[in-house]
Every structure is written in structure tokens, then in C-alpha cells.
Amino acid sequence: MFGGLREKLLVARNRLGSSIYGAAATQSPPELGLSTGKTAPAPETSKPISPLSPTFVDKVRVLITDRELIVSEKDVSDALSELEMTLLESDVAMPVSDAIISHVKISLVGKHRKIGDSVDALVVGALKSALLDVLGSGFNLADYVRTHNRPVKILFTGVNGTGKTTTVAKIGAYLKKMGFTVVIGAGDTYRAGAIEQIGVHAERIGIKIIQHQEGADPSAVLFDAVQYAVSHKIDVVLADTAGRFHTKSNLMSQLEKIKRVMKPDLVIYIDEAVAGNDAVIRAAEFEKTVGSDAVILTKADMDSRGGAAISIAHTIGKPLMFLGTGQGYDDIIPFEPEQVVEDLLGGGT
Amino acid sequence: MLDNLSTSLKDALKKLAGKTVIDRAAVDELVKDLQRALISSDVNVKLVMELSKAIRTRSLDEQLPKGTNVREHVLRIVYQELVRLVWASTDVKLEPQTILMAGLQGSGKTTTTAKLARYFQKKGMKAGVICADTFRPGAYDQISTLCAKINVPCFGNPLEKDANKITREGLEHLKDLELIIVDTQGRHALEADLIREIIELNILTKATHRWLVIDAALGQQASEQARRFHEAIDIDGVIITKMDGTAKGGGALSAVAETRSGIVFIGSGETIEDLERFNSDGFISRLLGMGDLKALVERAEEAIKADDVDVNAMMKGKFTLRDMYKQLEALNKMGPLKQIMGMLPMGNMELPEGVYDVTSTKMVRYRIIMDSMTPGELDDPSLITSSRLQRIARGAGATPDEVRELLKYFKMMQRTLKGLRGGGGKFNMQRLMKRFSGMQ
After folding, report:
1. Residue A348 counted as domain residue
2. CA-CA distance, A117 to B149, in Å (whole number)?
3. Contact between B67 and B311 (Cβ < 8 Å)
4. What domains sit in chain B, N to C, each tagged with a CATH number?
5. Interface-testing mutation among A252, A302, A312, A331, with chain B (most B C-beta atoms within 10 A)
6. How far is CA B210 from CA A318, B95, B139, B140, B179, in A?
């Protein structure tokens, strides 16, 4: 769905390309609705450096509103190129930020032509719609489990060191708290200490774990986990797997085999919030080989900017389910895009 | 490994290939391409901006040195600026030492610890590992399994929660060993307690090296995290891990710039042997996709003395055989042609196999032929009549045809140089080479 967005944006951008110039000129004197209380902004004054919360959207808003008032198409493009920088600094991958910029540009220019609305509202509206479009609608795991045949089988995938095992434990704790019964399949049979790691987690949160020894076939382990869930009428099977790079074709085909054998209801792709441009490449590769139904972003406590969320969501168009935000079992929060975007834009119009 | 970056840079530089004067628009475009290339490799945006600003200013302001074309000039600036970014490589000495590992969760510290132990073990050192990761379940199992595989002693206690206590005991326990690597728990810079812990560990171990492990995929956060770690324990080296994926490791470059240290090792695989020593000499050249540029720059400077050739006269069209002789001589001084070509940013130029040998022998022949000319003839080739041509050929032991070929080549050079008036240089290797290959 987001792949479509990008194409749409490109087409629209080309169509609008020439009208951008005319549009900015017809702009009526805009009122500033910024909470900073600034009214008639002097053109070309020093850019206010937002001393408050420098989240990226704040920065963006200040940049665009204040720049935009200097009524000329050249300044719109200046403001947009700074918006681009802001996105890039927030770890939004290059192609994704390009797409967002063009989206914002189109909304801005289109609006100006019709009404001379307040610039603030325009910018917030444009950004909001751009971000919401990219972030999709979220994913409620508890609802999913309630409305599907048990056991619900969930397979976790991702590259090395993104936090799959920890996340599996957190989700186990989360579902258990919601009143579901859970079994974990220790499918990371490769990394030394991985079985012990998930074993300790399972013990701490009081969840049954199905494990073989190191070096075993992960498909077999996970198949056993599913069998156990079926015979014990367990609600959810959480299948941990070894981290693997999308460039290792043997490991990727192993993942395909796992998928064939355990037939997961949900494939969840896990990546870290601190990842840069590579997030896009590997998400696309995983999507291509094993597919995915939802995304979990870990280590979000390290990074308040969350550009990776936007990159990944934009690239594979799958909803973000949870954010991992710390080392405790409770450090996981469901991702609600409206809420997040609302928070980001500071409750603006 | 940084292939993509090097491809994008090459493309950017290619655009300057045909230019003979510094053209603001072209430099702007190059800088923009460079920015995009670096940012999509995850190099810190601010760093990229500083870098590109420096490159832009220097490219436009600095005078084109004699004997280089625009592309070489800009390339050299890009190269020098990138070198400043990467700093010096960190020395790894094979002597008794303690290494403290630091890094974010999941960056690959434990795996790298084992790889490092293996690396030093292979170099003949007695290495040991202390597992000071008291938080992550299975951490001790992981490192002890890996160490058992390579017969390296590993000290740890999965039941103990105090990293300081374990480390103190570990240092005592492993005190006979030459090299001790302390693996620590993953932490990020905002976790004050954990930062305090690693400061304590640093004091306790009196670590010789404090190495920061950075995931190649780490994005813009790299600078910030590296800075905080550096403030806490004075990082003196960076290890990039997971270079076997598609990530380009630009985050590690930011970390290096931030900590003013060097990249020590690169981890590029899951087996214990997959660790390479990193050497920053020539790294940028490889990054730019063009052999050892540094050596080339040095050689060129040695070989071409400014007064060797009268560039100005040449630009006025006064290019004589004598100038060409000097040119060939200068080339010769720089060493075997093939080697020079290997060091050159060849860009879009493909030389067929075997051309190297033919051209270099041909150059020698040309010089011999010119040696057989009189000073007058060298200054004014139009003096060469058919009888003089016969004499020159006999004197040089060549055929008259070869002499004619030389004269033809000379005329071509002369025409080329006239066309270049106002820019370029007498030392236009690519053009020269094209002529040669065209004459085969």
C-alpha cells in the first residue's frame, strides 16, 4: 500500500511540477498559529531556534512555517530541503524522506492555491497526512489472537542483534498478562547461549518453553512447539529464530523451511530503532523472501527520533505492532500511529 | 564492503571527468552527490555537511595545481578531507594488555570478544576473557561456549550480579595471561547506571584499550552514542561489526570522527575467524574506488618538478617535441606504467589487456627516436624532411614508419593541447593513454 503511495507521489509531483511556482505567489498573508505566540513574522529574520523540545517535527514546523512566510517559491524549496535534512538526521532513509518531502510539497502547494489558510495548519496537516499515510494503522495483537483459531502461531524474524529473543520474552509476558496461555519455541539453535537466554526468560515469566539442543534443526523445534500447543490447547506459540542476514541465502532458505513446517499465522519482522539506511534494504529483502505481517521496532529508548519506523513502514507497508523501550519485560508498548503522530505534532490542528 | 558508497562517489566524480575548468555548478553537483552518497551510507548528517562545505570551498578557492586536471584536483581534495575524517589507525600491539569492550545492546560485543581472543591467540598471545555481562541471560553460556571452542580460558559466574566483583575476581584469576578481554553488558548512553558501571570497570581494569563496538547498520545515533561513551571512558578504537550484511558502516565513520580514534577491526561473519584488522591507510582510496591514491599523489609530486615543462608556452600552442620528451620522461620516473595505471582513478576508461606492455615499450621507443634528433628538430619538428627522417630512423635503429608514427602522435598531442587552452594540463594521462590505445 505504501509502495503505491510513493508511485502516486511521483506521478503527482511530475504533474504539479510546473504549478508550484505559480502557487506560492498567490499565497495570502498567513496568520501564524504557532504556540510560541509569535505573530507577524518578519521575513528574513534570524530563524528561531526552538529552545523547547527539539523533536524533529517541532524543528520541521518551525522551519517550514517561518521560512514559508517569505512568500516565494524559492523559499518553499529551501524549507523543504531543510525538512529533508531533518528527516535524514532522524534516520529516515534517503528514498523514504524523498517521498515524504514530495508529499508535503504537494499538499502545501495544492492548498495554497485554493485557500489562504493559516500556514501552521497547512504544514501540520500536510505532515500529519504524510506521516499517517506512511505509518499505516497499527496492529492490535490481542484482538488478533481473540479473533483467530488457536493456537495462533507467531514467527519472529530479523537480522542479528536486533533483540528478537528479548522481544519474544516481552511479548510472552504481555500476552500472559492479557490472559492468554503461551508457549515459546527456542528456534535459535545457532548462537551459543541463545537457548539458555530464552530459557531463563521463559522461566522468569513462567512460560513453558520447547527446546532442543544447540545445533538442532529449528524447524523441528518449532514444529514440536506447535504440536505441544495443539495438544495442550495453548493460545499462542511464539517462535524465536536465529538472527540472519538477508545476504545469506542458505539461512534465508532455512527460514522458508521453518515457515513451511510450522505454518505461522503471523510473521513478525524485528528491527532496531537505531538502524540507519540499511533498515530499508533488509526489510525489503526479508519481505521478499519470507514475507511479514507486522513489524516490531526494538531499542526505541535509545532513539527518540524513530526514523527507522518510518523507513520500514514505508518500505514494506506493514503495520508497526510494538515498540521495545527498555530491558524489562514491561518495556514494550503497542504502537498506535494516530496517537504517535498526534504526539509528534504537539496536538496541533 | 563499502562498495555502494564507492560506486556513488565514482559516479559523482565521473561528472567532472570532461571538465577542464573549475565550474561552480559542476562542483555543486558533485558535492550534492557526495552528500547523498555519504548520508545513504549512514554517515552523520552534520558531519557530511561540514565535510561537503570544506570540499566545496577548497575546490572553488584553491588554485588548480599545475599539472592536474579538474577531476584530479577535486578528487584529491575529497580524498584529503575524508582522510581527516577517519583519523589515524589505532595501533594494536602484541604485548600484555587489557581490553574493555563497550557498545550498545546487540551490537555484537560478545561475538567480537571471542573473535578478538582468537585473533590474539593466533598471534601467539595467551589470551583470556572475563564475562562481565551480568544482565543478559545466556551471556555467560554464549561466551564460555565460544571460548571453549578455541581453548581460551573464560572467567564468569552467571549467578553473580555484580560486574565489578566478577571482573575483580577475573583479573585475579587470569593474572598469568598476557591479554585479558573484558566483555561487558550492552548499554546505551542514556542509561546512567550502566554508564557509571562501565566507568567503574574502566578504572578497575586499568584497561589499555577501550574499544567501542558499532553495528554497521547503526544510523544517525552513532555520533551521539559514541560521544557519550567517549566522555565516559575515553574510547580509543572502534570495531565495526556485521559488515557481511548490506549495511555500509557510515555510522562507524561518525563514531570514529566523534571519538578521534581509529577503526581497529572489522567483523564480517558469524564464525570465530571472521575478524579483519582494519588499516586506515588506503581505506579512503578504496572507499573512493581507486587504488592507492596517496602513493600516487606523492609520486607525482616527486616526479614532476614544476619547472620541468613550460606550461604557459605550451598553452600558447608552443608544444615541441622537447616537451613531449619531458612528458614521457616524467611518466617514466613514476614507475612501471601498469603500476601507475593501477593507482589512477580510471573512472570510465577501460584499457584492453596487453595495452600496458605495448604502450610502455612504445614510449621507450619514442624516447630513443627523439634522442636521435638534433636540438633544432626537437624545437621545430617541421624541419624534419624525408632525408632527415631517414637519418633519425637509422640513428635510433628504428624504421622510418616508426618515426612517422611518432610525428603523427606528436601532432595529435599538439592539437589536443591547443584545444585545451586555458585549462587542463600537460600531464593529462587519460588523454595520453587514449591516444596510445587508439594507435594500436
Report:
1. no
2. 69
3. yes
4. 3-87 (1.20.120.140), 97-279 (3.40.50.300), 305-438 (1.10.260.30)
5. A302
6. 40, 16, 20, 21, 13
According to the model, what pLDDT value does residue A202 have? 93
pLDDT tens figures, B77-126: 877 787 777 666 667 888 899 999 999 988 899 999 999 999 999 888 99
Checking if the pLDDT of B340 tops 60, the result is: no
A16, A121: one domain: yes
Task: Tell whether B159 is within 8 A of chain A (Cβ).
Answer: no
Mention every residue, 6+ apart, whose C-beta is less than 8 A from residue A342.
none
CA distances (Å), origin B287, targets B2, B37, B226, B253: 6, 11, 22, 12
Confidence (pLDDT) at A49:
39
Query: Looking at the predicted complex, does its ipTM rise above 0.90?
Result: no
Chain B CB contacts of A305 below 8 Å: 220
> Is it true that the peptide bond before B153 is cis, omega within 30 degrees of 0?
no
Q: Which of A66, A100, A135 is the last residue of a domain?
A: A135
Do A89 and B188 count as a contact with CB atoms less than 8 A apart?
no
B 213-272 residues with CB below 8 A of A? 215-222, 225, 241-242, 244-248, 250-251, 270
Co-location of A120 and A148 in the same domain: no
Same domain, A322 and A201: yes
Q: Which residues of A touch B246 (CB under 8 A)?
A: 245-247, 278, 281-282, 285
A170 and A255 inside one domain: yes
- Stronger pLDDT, B8 or B290, i.e. the higher one: B8
Q: How many residues does chain B have?
A: 440
Domain count, chain A: 2
CA A289 remoteness from chain centre: 20
pLDDT of A43 higher than 70: no
- For testing the chain A interface, which of B141, B144, B152 should be mutated: the one with the most A CBs within 10 Å? B141
Phi, psi of B107 (to 5 degrees): -85, -15
Whether residue A123 is found in the same domain as residue A207: no
Q: What cell does B126 get?
A: 595467551
Q: How far is CA A123 from CA A52, A60, B326, in A?
A: 19, 9, 65
For residue A344, being part of any structural domain is answered with no
| A279: chain B residues, CB-CB within 8 Å | 217, 219
Residue-range definition of the domain harbouring residue A329: 141-339
Cβ–Cβ below 8 Å for A302 and B135: no
Residue linked to cell 495453548: A234
pLDDT, position B301: 57
Whether residue A226 is found in the same domain as residue A312: yes
Q: Are residues A113 and A156 in the same domain?
A: no
Q: Which residues of B212-230 are buried (b: 16+ CB within 10 A; e: fewer)?
A: bbbbbbbbbbbbbbbbbbb
Cβ-based contacts of B216 with chain A (< 8 Å): 278
For B270, which residue in chain A has the nearest alpha carbon? A191
Compute the distance between CA of residue B213 and CA of residue B112 in angstroms, rounded to an integer: 8
Q: What is the pLDDT of residue A44?
A: 38
Q: What is the pLDDT of residue B31?
A: 83
CB atoms B246 and A327 under 8 Å: no
Closest alpha carbon to B56 in B16, B29, B38:
B29
pLDDT level of residue B362 (50, 70, 90 thresholds): confident
pLDDT tens digits, one per residue of A53-97: 456 666 666 656 554 443 345 556 766 777 777 778 878 888 888
A182 and A201 within one domain: yes
Counting one residue from chain A and one from chain B, the pairs whose CB atoms sit within 8 A come to 144
A94 three-state secondary structure: helix
Contact A197 B46 (CB under 8 A): no
pLDDT of A121 reads: 64
B107 touches chain A (CB under 8 A): yes
User: In chain B, which residues have their Cβ closer than 8 Å to the Cβ of A307?
Assistant: 219-220
